[in-house]
TrEMBL record:
GO cellular component: extracellular space
GO molecular function: growth hormone activity; growth hormone receptor binding
Location within or outside the cell: Secreted
A Pfam family annotated for this UniProt entry: Hormone_1
Keyword Chaperone recorded: no
InterPro entries, per the entry: 4_helix_cytokine-like_core, Somatotropin/Prolactin, Somatotropin_CS
Keywords: Disulfide bond, Glycoprotein, Hormone, Secreted, Signal
Lineage of the organism: Eukaryota, Metazoa, Chordata, Craniata, Vertebrata
Chief place where the protein resides: secreted
Protein species of origin: Oryzias melastigma (Marine medaka)
Protein name according to UniProt: Somatolactin alpha
Length: 230
């Protein structure tokens, strides 16, 4: 078991620099710090870059969740979380999860749903970075991955907003659900409660990151093969 984990960690260390090298799919020129020229590129190319960005975010969220589990979560607690003992912060958002419901979403609501998920997670991921910094034995790789995802989520938000302007002639979305789903801080948690809260955040974000990727890929499919998108 320890050998397998060691091998996984070594592979992650080898692949991590490569991930940074390919992690600028939304940048509309070679400069990774700028999104200023996104309106000048085609809708198709921008959608491809947004999808690639979402794929990377989901991949790193999976890696972060697995790393956190190995470091801090014994199996019985993982099972407790999987059985629904902790609610996700986006549970109340009007976003379907069944395949049939997702298929019925219009292109507009696919994009709005992605944007709503992205915006709902920006603040909690900042909180997660702060709490992980207080862990005594949190590996640097976990801290770096969490910071990377937090930064790239903001970039994804910018890309989705530009895509909405291109596809729907719309700007940012104002939603009545933002206050209801506002993230609540609690600095009085004991160590176990804090660990379980952070684990819940990671597992829930991983699920939502997969939704973002799925919605964007469905949108892409509809642009190319409208009647055969499953």
């Amino acid at each position: 078991m320890h050998t397998r984990v060691l091998h996984q960690s070594l592979w992650a260390l080898l692949l991590w620099p490569h991930l940074f090298a390919v992690s600028a799919p939304l940048d509309c020129r070679d400069d990774p710090a700028s999104l200023a020229r996104c309106p000048s590129i085609s809708q198709e190319k921008l959608l491809d870059r947004v999808i690639h960005h979402a794929e990377l975010i989901y991949r790193v969220s999976e890696e972060s969740c697995s790393l956190f589990e190995e470091m801090f979560i014994p199996l019985p607690l993982r099972l407790q979380t999987n059985q629904g003992g902790y609610a996700c912060i986006t549970k109340s958002l009007p976003i379907p999860s069944s395949k049939s419901e997702i298929q019925q979403l219009s292109d507009k609501w696919l994009l709005h749903s992605v944007l709503l998920l992205v915006q709902s997670w920006i603040e909690p991921l900042v909180y997660l970075q702060m709490t992980l910094d207080r862990y005594d034995h949190a590996p640097d790789m976990l801290l770096n991955k969490t910071k990377w995802v937090s930064e790239k989520l903001i970039s994804l938000e910018q890309g989705v907003v530009v895509l909405m302007k291109k596809m729907l002639d719309e700007g940012t979305m104002t939603t009545a659900y933002s206050e209801q789903g506002a993230f609540q801080y609690d600095v009085q948690l004991d160590i176990l409660e804090s660990i379980m809260r952070d684990y819940t955040l990671l597992t829930c974000f991983k699920k939502d990151a997969h939704k973002m990727e799925t919605f964007l890929k469905l949108l892409k499919c509809r642009q190319t093969d409208k009647y055969n998108c499953a």
